[in-house]
Amino acid sequence: MNYQALYRKYRPKTFDDIYGQDIIVKTLKNIIKNNKLTHAYLFIGPRGTGKTSIAKIFAKSINCQNNKDGLSCEKCDICKITNNSENMDIIEMDAASNNGVDEIRDIKNHVTLLPTSSKYKVYIIDEVHMLTMGAFNALLKTLEEPPKHIIFILATTEPHKIPLTIKSRCQNFEFKPISKQKIKENLKKICENEKIKIEDEALNLISTYCNGGMRDAISLLDQLNVYSNSKITKEDVILLNGRISKDEIYNLFLNIFNSNLKEIFQMIDSYEETGKNFTYICQDIINYLKENLIKIKMGEKQKINEILDEKQIIDIIMMFNNSMNNMQNSIDKRIFFDLNIIQIINKLKKVNKQTNVCNINEYYCDLMDIRLNNIISVADKESLKMFKNLFSNLNSDVSDIDDLKIINLLSDIQICAASKDGIIMSIDNENVLNELYNKLFDIEKIIYKKINENIKVCIVLDSYWQKQRPIFVNKIKSKEKFEILPENSIIENINKILNKKSSVFNDFEDLIEIGE
């Protein structure tokens, strides 16, 4: 087996090879340079951020026979045997598998022994939080009075699990997630050395997906290099890593916005069938929304802003973040994903309903302006008299309960003008006006039942009629020609919104049936 994994091949050998931990590197180099070594160090940080690598480099550098400015020379015998993992004075231990009292007591029994070839004997204990309480107590006794030739380097991803008595006896170094730019820079260098062809967007995705961990990024690159036959593409990264693309996220929200439930759950089914990770999908959605939100705040136009406003984006980010938390201890992560999607649909449905009311009222107002113009242009007194008589007895011989409810809404209207095929009415109550708009076509049907004629109804507020009336009177007096305005396109838009409301309701009925 000659092949060496890339993360091992490109593991840092000196402080100069470290990416993204400049403050820690500078501090450790100064400690060596100024001979200010202490007996114990605690390295805290996410996985793959360089804790173990820096621990090994630090152990090698403090023992280097010719170190300069805190840097190992890489030429002396100590450096050579350390690089070959043959230095018996640098002992690595994984607390995940060696977490008992006996293992720590074994260390305690050997710390009194002098180093074989190095100046210091260094114990590197990885995942130290995995030690049992008894093991921590045994380690504490060793840390309290260590021999001068012993140095402990403890590493952990979960510092909250380490007793304060241990923490307080160590110099603490907090490792930060490595920036995307630093990770990309290193990956690009590796690709050049290994002659790996890769798209720049693929590098960006790897740098994003690894969550600040260099080791994970290099491992993913290695896996992609094996998977891809020629050139690594962004599609390869998305597919192999169980993620979804930005276009898929946008289409998901487009369907959510339009309450296309069947399409939404078909998409989610495809995620499951292709083995995508729902925790990662939540993370991808959060990152996508966050990036778009920042660009929107900076004044850049984004497609998602046509669907969601800033508050909705923030609310949805928080909802997906909660889903990720719920998924951590769940076997079936999709359950929380589905529930979250349904909650978002319900939330947006309420907002969309309000938006539709605003839009439909705007269309009704435009329609009323058109009809006001068209009816007045051919208005006559005989039609006005006929409609006044009709409306005074509109509820006679009406047995349909729904029709009677609508007629009752018309009890306070004033008939202002009329033509052979249209009638203008006014009312002083805006709330009732909005109800009448919703029943506009039903009113026209009631009139048709009475006189067997298609009559166009125009209803406006009294205050609006009082403003518009003198304008039309002056126009008639001056014998100005009226232009008859078309209304078909506006009625189509109104019907689309009305049908959409009905469609949304039916979709939710279907969802209930699916659930049953």
Written overview of the protein:
- It is built from 22 helices and 10 strands.
- The longest helix is centred in the C-terminal third of the chain and has 45 residues, at about 335-375.
- The strands form 3 sheets. It has a 5-stranded parallel beta sheet with strand order 2-3-4-1-5, covered by helices on one side. A 3-stranded mixed beta sheet has the order 8-9-10, with helices on both faces. The protein has a two-stranded parallel sheet with strand order 6-7.
- With about 525 residues, it is of the alpha/beta class.
- The radius of gyration is 37 Å and the shape is elongated.
- The two termini are about 55 Å apart.
- The model is unreliable at about 355-360 and about 500-515 (pLDDT under 50).
- Strand 8 (about 415-420) and strand 9 (about 420-425) form a beta hairpin.
- The chain has helices spanning about 5-10, 20-35, 50-65, 75-85, 100-110, 135-145, 165, 180-195, 200-210, 215-225, 235-240, 245-255, 260-275, 280-295, 310-325, 335-375, 380-390, 400-410, 430-440, 440-450, 460-475, 490-515; strands at about 40-45, 90-95, 120-125, 150-155, 170-175, 195-200, 230, 415-420, 420-425, 455-460.
- The protein has 4 domains: about 5-175, Rossmann fold (3-Layer(aba) Sandwich), CATH 3.40.50.300; about 180-240, Orthogonal Bundle (Helicase, Ruva Protein, domain 3); about 245-350, Up-down Bundle (Zinc Finger, Delta Prime, domain 3), CATH 1.20.272.10; about 380-485, GMP Synthetase, Chain A, domain 3.
